[in-house]
Amino acid sequence: MTEPPAPSDLDIAVVGGGVAGVYAAWRLRAAKAEALGPLLRAHVSEDGRMRVGLFEYSDRIGGRLFSVALPGIPDTPVELGGIRFLSTHAHVRSLVQHFGLETRELPVVDPQGRHIFYLRGRHFTGADWDRLEFEPPYRLERGERGRAPGALLTEVALRHREAAELHPERYRDRGFWNLLLDELSDQAYHLVRDAGGYETIVNNWNAAEAIPFLLADFPTGAIYRAIRKGFEEVPRELKRRYHDAGGFVSTRHRLHRLDRDDAGFRLVFDHGDPALFGSGRRMQSEIVVRARHVILAMPRRSIEMLHPDSFIFDSPRFEDDIRSVLPQPGLKIFAAYRHPWWQRVRGVIAGRSVTDLPIRQCYYWLTGTASEGATAGSILMASYNDGASVEFWAGLARRPERYVPPPQACPPGVAIPEDLRGATAPAALVVEMQRQLCELHAIRVGKDNADGVTPPYYAVFQDWSQDPFGGGWHFWKIGANSAEIIRRLRKPFADANLHVCGEAWSRQQGWVEGALATANEILEQELLMPRPSWLAVSEQPS
């Protein structure tokens, strides 16, 4: 369905249809005059509401929340973007409860410790870390032996927590990688990086941010929850409610240039096929919108892609603030199988396995069951990787040949689409993915098969380092004073009603909670809107 165009004159233009943008647009449009601050109340329309327009680069609302139902498995969508949230995430939890969305627990470990570690050519399981005599294939120093990788990392963070809280300026100028190597041997550092599954978390970002991030977001015994219909259901529901309140959504609109004018702002959009957006290309269809207020709910890369003559770039401080975060490469691959071969081969049914191969993390997303010869579909998050390994898969993704599954891999009666929401994985990527999965699970790969393991019948992937995102999440640079920068970006120019929000500019980077918290702070602290009764007080500073 084609969206009706937004009016050319708006009270508020929200640019960016990720969760922060659609949340802000919904709250602003749904609010009646009495729920608006004095800054906005003077400009309500005849219906007593603000004229709000939401503009999105792509052809969908959701940003880095991207849930896809694989063929034959409609009830368990996969998450190519954000996966989960914690009970401490007050904004997400409140919104999920307010909308009545059903959730489920998302385990990280197999309850019996059968999940696999394959590091430096050796296989072992999660249960092995509990054995006193177990020695991983790393030359650890005496004081580093006998502890799991997560414990080694957490102990460093705990040793520095109090000092980082009392003297954040001392840690702000330290790289987290540098700090870890002051505390751990090089071998222990590599064990933490390899067995933890994430490269970017232990790289050189702002140590003052990294320490509370680790302790808050990866606590021992953490319980993660997922949305049963997919995390994308959150922005979908926000969009539905925004629509019901009479809000305008304009997809396939790339903000090209942002200028000031007498009314406030002049926004120039390029409207057309998102695949044809980009520098050096002629604009497909120029659309001009004027607005009194603008909210840029955009990550660093999207803002940097604006025309260099946009007025925001006249301010060196604004440019420095935008560049105070580092986009982090992130890529995911999901694969659907007719049979859950991992259960037969290794006995594992849940949690994740980790390797130093480029696939890095493998989650057992759905382990189906068989009865009377019929098998329910099963799903692996076959690869969740970040850092340098992203480019390995990006190279294979550039090969256009379509993956065609062998007949025995396909469940009867399940149609195999040629493409699925633009995320279908090509043949070269799927073949290499399957080879590495077999190596991770210690499965012998022969000339024509792998110990009888049937390959997937479908696979999807998403590389978040591509434009307009620039990365899957962001981390604060060494030296960045995040508290000051977050405050400045809420209203970067004293004489302009411009605001910037999103996960990139939050104290909970990498999480939907951070995106929602920054949007909410603009609404409450800059636009003076009251907090709704259903929204809990955040349990952590944003």
**How many helical stretches?**
16
Distance between the termini: 37 Å
The CATH superfamily of the largest domain is: FAD/NAD(P)-binding domain
CATH topology of the largest domain: FAD/NAD(P)-binding domain
Q: How much helicity do the residues have?
A: 25-40%
What's the mean pLDDT score? 92
Strand content: 15-25%
Count structural domains.
3
Summarize the structure.
It contains 16 helices and 23 strands. It is globular, with a radius of gyration of 24 Å.
Descriptive account of the structure:
There is one protein chain. This protein has helices at residues 19-30, 38-41, 90-99, 149-166, 168-172, 176-183, 186-196, 207-217, 233-244, 300-304, 316-322, 341-346, 389-397, 427-440, 482-490, 512-526, and strands at 9-15, 52-55, 67-70, 73-79, 85-86, 103-105, 116-119, 122-125, 224-227, 248-250, 253-261, 264-271, 286-296, 325-328, 330-337, 352-355, 361-366, 370-371, 374-375, 378-386, 458-463, 473-476, 498-500. It folds into three domains: 9-62 and 234-327 and 474-526, FAD/NAD(P)-binding domain, CATH 3.50.50; 67-89 and 101-108 and 330-463, no CATH class; 139-219, Orthogonal Bundle (Guanine Nucleotide Dissociation Inhibitor, domain 1), CATH 1.10.405. Helices cover 29% and strands 22% of the residues. Helix 1 packs parallel to helix 9 (233-244), helix 4 (149-166) crosses helix 7 and helix 4 (149-166) packs across helix 8. The two termini are 37 Å apart. The longest helix is centred in the first third of the chain and has 18 residues, at 149-166. The mean pLDDT is 92. The chain has 542 residues and is of the alpha+beta class.
